[in-house]
Amino acid sequence: MAQSYRREPEEQARALPRPSKRAATNLKHLPRQRQVEYPRWLVVLLFMQRVSVISAIGLASAVCICLGWITFIQQEWNQKLEEKQRLERLGREIENQIPPIDQDTLNRIPPNYKKATPGDNIDLERAEPRTVPTLPATEQGDRPSEPVPAGY
User: Structural domain tally of the chain?
Assistant: First the structure.
């Protein structure tokens, strides 16, 4: 009279409740799992951790940007310095190619020689002043013809 507590597979399949299709179609959202309430100090620590991670990433990216900018400026500076040194060398070479002025040439300079000024470097001939076109005697009246300013 030993009773068997073991069920047959068919009986096991019948014993399990089957989910109804109707209940699944009415389900609008998954049921919320019960959220664990963390202590306030732990919430503050987790918030501080997130803030520190974000700030660390921001600082690292700012440092990388600054280093890249400094490197770029340094390269530009070096290029300009090399160009300046090249031009200085070229200027010295040109100066060395010019023969020195001997004393006889200096003695031949007239005593009333005037040094050139920036205004004297323009080699333009002065133009005649413009005049107002003459009108017939009836329209001209008593006005004398005066030169018109150059306008430049």
Answer: 1
